[in-house]
Amino acid sequence: MLQRVLRLTPAILPALAATLLVCSGCESVRIAKHRIPVDGAASIQGPLAVDVSNIRGSVDVVVKPELTEPIVTARRLPAEGFDRVDMIKPDWVAAEISQDGPASVLRVLTTQTGEVGDGVAIVIMTPSCSGLRVRNAGGPVTATGVAGAIDVQNGSVSATGGSITITTRADLDAPVALVTTSGSVTLDAGAGTRGDITITAPSRRAVVDAPGANINDIKANTDRWTGTVNGGGHQIVLDAGGGWVYLTLD
């Protein structure tokens, strides 16, 4: 039985509708997810790409074709941990859609103006994603159903990274770079994906499973694996700083 009792008043009922309840033992933690307004959402023209810069936290991009416009939600990650009811909106997160030539770009940016050290978990649901760029630190990055060029960097010289997981049925035929300073890197894409692959992972921590693809020119040593898939082409760089690399093409 939960030991913490929360009085439900009309003022907080709307916030509770978007709240995730986590229970551990006799403690409960409520973490509010807040919808972030997307400026320019009604002006989408052409293909839609996603560009995210998150100072600290996590990023999750999910393609949902049934949507008519992107939905961005965020929840605050308190530096002191989830030990209290937290309904504070991360007001340092902004989102807008702008035109970049014939394409539209959804840009989601965090500018830390909240409490020092607080991070944010960003979730982006979008009707399509024809290209993805993410800069993050301190947590995982995941993307499902994306296509086009993919450029994800997680962590830096001064900040820890996190795992990167890209899952798509698309046959990728554009540059791909998945780089983390700590954690594993996973790319699961269509068997028709083509490019020149470079995998960097310590102590042969690389798993390549591509039964439906044609891989040639393989060279490998303890920390590096290279090869061409389906005739080669654009660079596909998978770099795990201390973790495993998993490449699946099927």
List the helices and strands and how they pair.
Blueprint: H1 13-16, E1 19-24, E2 27-32, E3 34-36, E4 38-39, E5 48-53, E6 57-63, E7 71-77, E8 93-100, E9 103-110, E10 119-126, E11 131-136, E12 141-144, E13 149-154, E14 164-167, E15 176-180, E16 185-189, E17 195-200, E18 206-209, E19 215-220, E20 224-229, E21 235-240, E22 245-249
Parallel strand pairs: 4-8, 5-9, 5-11, 6-10, 6-12, 11-13, 12-14, 13-15, 14-16, 15-21, 16-22, 17-21, 18-22
Antiparallel strand pairs: 1-2, 3-7, 7-10, 8-9, 17-20, 19-20
Strands of the widest sheet, in order across it, are: 4-8-9-5-11-13-15-21-17-20-19
What value does the average pLDDT take?
A: 85
Spans with pLDDT under 50 lasting ≥5 residues?
1-30
Main β-sheet, in a few words?
A: 11 strands, mixed
What is the tally of helical segments?
Answer: 1
The radius of gyration computed from the alpha-carbon positions, rounded to a whole number of angstroms, is: 20 Å
Order of helices and strands: HEEEEEEEEEEEEEEEEEEEEEE
Assess the beta-strand content as a share of residues: over 45%
Helix content: under 10%
> What structural category characterises the helix and strand content?
mainly beta
Q: Give the number of DSSP strands.
A: 22
**For the terminal residues, how far apart are their CA atoms?**
46 Å
General form: globular
